[in-house]
Design goal:
- It is a single chain.
- The protein has a single domain, classed as RRM (RNA recognition motif) domain (Alpha-Beta Plaits, 2-Layer Sandwich).
- About 35% of the residues lie in helices and about 30% in strands.
């Protein structure tokens, strides 16, 4: 389950340049469950997911969208821009 979008200066650069979005997710979520959730909620195609555990113990997912979908558009829907 996606908890919230994780927005930092680095994340905004990746939104613009690499078509990637960052989310904080449940610690027990798998890459497949994260991919399904993002595709269903935002109606996009996900090409890759990288996950990591932050020093605070949160799980962060870096989601790469396909070229036909815009991370900037999703970010604007989330109120980032």
């Amino acid at each position: 389950m996606l908890k919230y979008a994780y927005i930092t200066e680095k994340a905004t650069v990746q939104i613009d340049k690499d078509n990637k979005l960052h989310f904080i997710v449940d610690i027990d979520d798998t890459k497949d469950s994260i991919k399904k959730a993002v595709e269903e909620i935002y109606d996009v195609t996900v090409t890759d997911i990288k996950t990591l555990i932050t020093p605070k113990g949160l799980k962060k997912a870096i989601v790469t969208l396909s070229g036909e979908n815009s991370a900037e558009e999703i970010a604007s829907r989330l109120g980032v821009f």
